[in-house]
Amino acid sequence: MGQFVLRRLGVMLLTALALTFVVFYLTNLQPNLEKLARTEGSVRMTEEAVQDWIEQNGHSGSVLLRYGQWLGVVPGWTYTDEKGQTRGRCMEIGQDPAAAPRYCGLLQGNWGFSTFFKKPVADSLGEKLAATGWLMLAVMLVMVPASLILGVLSGMREGSATDRALSTFSIASTATPEYVSGVVLVALFATAATGISPLLAEYGLIEPKKTLFLASATSAMDDITFWNFALPVLTIALYGIGYIARMTRASMTEVMTQQYIRTARLKGVPFRSVVMKHALRNALIAPFTVIMLQFPWLLNGVVIVESLFNYKGFGWTLVQAASNNDIPLLLACSVVAVIVVLLTQLISDIGYVFLNPRIRLA
Amino acid sequence: MDQLTWTGSAGTVLLPVIQIAVLALALALVAKLIFVLAGLDGPGLPGPDGAATSRAPGAFASLGIRISFFAALAAALLILAAGAVMPTPVEAGILGSMAVRFWPVWLALAATFILSIRFRRRLGLYGKLFDSNVGMIGFAIVMFWVFTAIFADAIITQDPLAQLSGLKNKVPGIAAPESPFGWYLLGGDHLARDVFSRMVMGAREVLKIAPAATLFAFMVGITLGLPAGYFGGRLDTFISFLANLVLAFPVILLFYLLVTPEIRVTGIPIVLAAILFVFPIVFLCVLWNSRYYTDPMKRNLYVGITLVIGLWAYSGLAFNMDPLGVWSMEPNMLNVFVSVVFVNSPGVFRIVRGLVMDIKARDYVAAGQTRGEGSWYIMLWEILPNARGPLIVDFCLRIGYTTILLGTLGFFGLGVSPDSPDWGSTIDDGRKLLNLFPHPALAPALALMSLVLGLNLLADGLREESLKD
User: Fold this and answer.
1) A185 and chain B: CB distance < 8 Å anywhere?
2) Residue B283: left if φ>0, alpha if ψ -120 to 50, beta else—which one?
3) Does A245 touch chain B (CB under 8 A)?
4) At a CB cut-off of 8 Å and minimum separation 6, what does A66 contact?
5) CA-based nearest residue to B11, from B144, B173, B157
6) Is B446 on the interface with A (CB under 8 A)?
7) Non-local CB neighbours of B345 within 8 Å, separated by 6+ positions
8) Highest mean pLDDT pick, A108-117, A193-202, A323-332, B397-406
9) Residue in A19, A180, A195 nearest the CB of B249
10) Which pTM value belongs to this model?
11) In this complex, which of B245, B252, B435 lies closest to A215 when CB atoms are compared?
12) Is the complex ipTM more than 0.90?
C-alpha cells in the first residue's frame, strides 16, 4: 500500500511539473510577452522598445531557465541599467542587490505579482479560493445525496416505470451543460419578464418586480443566502447529478442481480430492508470513485457558472487572468487546478482500495 | 401587421386541453409517489386459490400518468399540425409557423423513417435501432438537427446577419415589416437580428465541426490505442502518460491557452494540426496494407488512392497550401478544430486501449497469431471490428460532448468570429441582458440541449441494442 501511494505520488509530481511547464510555455510565448509589454509599458512602444522591455524584465532567454526561476530552482534574474541601478526578480524596488535572496519562486512561497489585481498573487488567490470553496461545498451537499437517491431508486427495480422516468431525467441532465441550464434556470426563476416570477407576483406571493431568485451571485461574496446562491449551486449540481446517478444505477442494478440478494429475498426479508441493508453498501463503492473524479468537471462548471452569475471566485479569476494576460495569476490558477485534479485522482484510487476489500495491492 | 401569439387560433381550443392534461399529469405523479412510499405499488401476492389480486392503486396512478401525458403530447402536436394548415402566420401562431418553416425537415425525416423501418432487417445495427423506442426518439432528434443544418437556407426567414431597425430585443412573434417573412418568430436579439434564423443557421455551424472533430479524435485515439493496448510495455506507459497529462488539464484552461489570437502568430495550431491530421492517413494506409499486402496490385491501388487524396487534403487543411484550392480552413476554425480534437483524443485512446486489452485475450486473436498474421492485421481486422459496439456508442456520446465543448468555446468568446450564429456565442451574447430579455439566449440554449440529449438517447438505444447480440 505504502509503495503504491509513493509511486502514485511520484507520477503525480512528474505530471504536475510537466503540466505547469506546458502552461508556462504557452503563457510565455513571444506574442503574449509583447502584449504584456504593451499593456505594462505603453501601447505606442516601438518594436525595439518592446524587445528591450522584455529583456529588461527578465522575460528573455531560455524558457527552461525562466521556468526554473518561477519554480525557484534557478537564481532569479537581475538587470543593471545604464544608471547602474539593479532590478531583479527577487528584489523590491530600491532594495540593495546584495541583501536580496537569490532564489524566489514557487518553492520559496513567492507566487509572483498579479498585474490584474495589482497585488501579490497569493493574497488574491486565497480569498477567491475561499469563495469557490463555499460554492463547491454547497454543490456537493446538493449533488451527492440527490444523485445517490436517484441512482438507487432507479437501479432498485431495473426496467420499471420509475427507473425509466428517472433514467430519462439523468440523461437529460447530463445533456445540459452549465451554460444552458444556467440560462434556462435564470429565465424560469430569476427574471421579472418570463418564467414563474411574474405569475407569483400576480398571485401576490412575492413583491411585484421582484424575482424568486437572484440572477447574480455577486452579493453572495459577502453574505450567502438561499436567495442569491440557489441558482449557481443548482446549475453546477444538475450537470453532475445525471452522471453520478447513472453510475449509481449501473452499480445498483448489478448488485441487485447478485446471488445474496436473491437469497435474502427468498428468505422473506422485506424488499425495503434488502435494499437498505444488503444492496446499498455494496452498490455505493463505484459511485465513490465517480464522485471524486467529478471534481475536475466541477472545476469546469465553476468557471462557467462564476462567469455567468458574476460570482468572483476561482473560476472568475481564471477567466480574468486569461483574458487580461496576467501570466503569474494564470500560472497560479493552473497550479491550483492541476493539484486539485491530481489529488482527487489519488484519493479516488486509494479510497477505492479501502472500500473494496477484494482489491489487494501487494 | 399584428404580433403573433404563441399558439395562434388553434390554441384557443387546445391550450385549455393542455392545461388540464398537465394538471392531471402532475396529480397522477403525486399520487404515484404517495402510493410508492406507502407501499401500495406493485402487484400483491396471488391469493390461496391462485387467483390474481386486484390491481394495486399504484397501477391506476401509472395509467393516469400515461393517459394524461399522451393527451398533453397529442394536444401539443395538434397545435403544430394545425399551424401547418392555417392560411396565415397570424392564425398559425409562432409554434405553427415554425412548424411550417421546417417543412423540408419533416419531409426528410418521414422519408428516412419510412425507408429505415421498411428495410430495418437488412440494415444491421442501424436497423436494430428502430426496435428501441429510446433509440428512435434520439435518432429522430439528431436527424432533425442534421436536416435543419442541411436545409437551413430554406428554413430561415431572413439573413441571420441582417439587422432591422426598431427590433432590438423585441419579444417573440413581433411584426417585422421589412423582413421578407414579415415577423420575427422568436424575437430580435441585442443587435436586432432574427433569433430564429440565427438558431437555424447555428445548427449548421455546430454540425459542421462537431462530427468531423470527433471523427478525427477517433482516428488519433484508435491509431495510438491499438498498439498501446496490444503491445503494452514501454510504448503503452509512454502514450498513457501523455494521455493522462492532457486529461488532467482543466479543459477551459487549455482552451484559454490554445485558442487565442496570439497563439496563431506562433504557429502552434499549425504544428498541432500537422501532427493530428496525419493520423487518419496513417490509419487508412496501415489498414489497407495489412489487409492486402499479399495482393500488391490491390494494395498499391488502395494505398495510392489514400495517399493522393489524403496528402492533398492534408496540405490544404493543415498548411492551407492546397495547390488546387479545394481544401482549406480558416485559421480561426483550424484553431478551434485542432483544440477540440486534441482535447478529445486522449479519452478515445483510453477507451480503445481498454477494449483492446480485453479482446486480445480471446481465442480468435490467438488463432490469428498462430496462423502467423501480422500484428497490425490482428489489431485492425480482428480486434477493431469486434470492438465496434462500444466505439459506436462512445462516438455518439462524444459528438454530444464535442458540441458542449464548442458551445463552451463560444460562450467564452474564444476562436469564433463575433458575428457567427453558432449556439455557444449566441448564448454568450444573450446572457448579458438575460434577466430583462431571456429569449435571445433561450432559443440557442434549448437547441443545443435538445441536440445533445438526442445524441445521448441515440447512444443509449444503440448500447441497448448492441448488447442484445
Assistant:
1) no
2) alpha
3) no
4) A24, A28, A58, A59, A77
5) B173
6) yes
7) B217, B220, B221, B224, B243, B246, B276
8) B397-406
9) A19
10) 0.89
11) B435
12) no
